[in-house]
Amino acid sequence: MNRFDGQTVLITGATSGMGASHVRGFHAAGAQVVIAARDLDAASSFASSLGPRASAVRLDVTSEPDWIAAIEQIGPLSVLVNNAGAQHPAALIEDTPLPTWERTLAVNLTGQFLGIKHATPSLRAAGGGTIINIASTMANVGQACYAPYVASKWALRGLTRTAALELGRDNIRVNSIHPGVVATPLITEPIADQPPIGDLYSPAPFAVPRLGTPEEVTALILHLVSPDGAFATGAEFVLDGGLLLGPALAA
Q1: Catalytic residues
Q2: pLDDT in tens, 54-93
Q3: Into which CATH architecture does domain 8-239 fall?
Q4: Helix then strand then coil, % of the chain, to nearest 5
């Protein structure tokens, strides 16, 4: 028996990058996986490629009506992975347009708030479950030129802890994962007219001198959602190859 047989898992931002990896990981482990994305055609195509136990739903995470409609369509949930996120071009605070600030917080923070808000009754109806919020190592430090992204991820830490306190008695656990630099389109593809973040970053000084992989993040999520992670809630799991530790000793 697969360890997630009979469980329904909703993953946002699920058609590429880490989200797509999470979809494949849960599907391979037996779950009923719901692929949520703004592009319903892409989500449906992805679901069709996986075959049984995969379905698609259109979801703009910043839209409360979209969340309400999606949850009604899906039915009782066992797991919500709040994965959808947005990055923005580098700019000093004084040069950051207000719409950039607002859009980044809408996706990275309000989207996860709405997910928790509307998934909670469904998780409760299923007898409990797990919410995983995807944060970032930028939730633990300051980072020049990325104020909207940093602020959204710092705020997500507080949201995660508060939700864990509110939902613990309902047998709903809430944790956050803080990936470092992971090889996804967010890192490897240009943002607006700027070069990819990966072009500006070298992991060479750090304890694990390479980029992370989406599959490594997926493996941690599967562990936390399984019975093996049953004692963890309101916790923050850093997965960064030692980035936050600073430079390691030279070999």
Answers
A1: 149
A2: 999 999 999 999 999 999 999 999 999 999 999 999 999 9
A3: 3-Layer(aba) Sandwich (3.40)
A4: 45, 15, 35
